[in-house]
Amino acid sequence: MESLTSKTLTRKHRIARDGLDDNLNVRLHRSLSWLRPAESSLDNECWDEAFIYYWISFNAIYSVEQHDRTVRSEKDIFSDFFVTIRGLDDHQTLYDWIWNGLTGSIHTLIKNKYVYRPFWDSLNDPEIDWKSQLEESIRQFSFAFKRQDTIMILCIIFDRLYVLRNQIIHGNAARNSRRNRAQIRDGAKIMAFLIPVFIDLMIENPDAKWPAPTYPPIT
Question: What is the predicted pLDDT for the residue at 71?
Fold first, then answer.
C-alpha cells in the first residue's frame, strides 16, 4: 500500500481542491495542518502530543454544528461519519489497512480495561460487572472482524479512543505518565493509520456532500 503521509496527501489535495466542495476543502485544509505535527511527534515517540494532534486532525473532518435542541452524543456523530466514510470506500480500503497494519495494536487496545468506560464507572458503582461487559465487547469486535464490518470495527475502536481522549484532553492523565504508556502509544499508532485513510477517501470522492465545518472561515 502507498504510504499516506501529510506530504503526499497535501500534494494530492492541492491538485484536487478546485473540484472539491468548499466545505470539504476547509475540513481537509484544517485536518492536514494538524496531521503534519502529529507525524513529527510520532516519529519522535512523543506519544501524548502525537495522540492529541491526531485527534484534532480527526475532529476537523468529522465535527458538525448542532443546531437542534436534541444534542447528539459524540459517539452518534462518530457513527454517522463512519457510515459516510464506509459508503465512499468501494474497495474495502479501510478494512485492508486495519487488517494489514493495525491488528496487533487494535487487539491490545480493545482488551485494555483502562480505556473501557464501564471499568471506571465500576469504581463508583461496584454493581457494574465491567469484566463481563468487556468480554462481550471483545467478542463483538472479533465477530465484526470476521464479517468485515468496518463500521462496527471503527465504532468499537473509537469508543476506546474516546475514553483515552477524555483522560488526556481533560487533564485526567499526567504527560509522559508511565501508567498509561501502552494505551497512549497504541492509540497514537492507530490514529496514525486511520486518519490519513479517512482524508484520502474524502479527497477521492469529490461528489460527496459535507456539512459546513464548525467555526467556518470568515473573509
Answer: 59
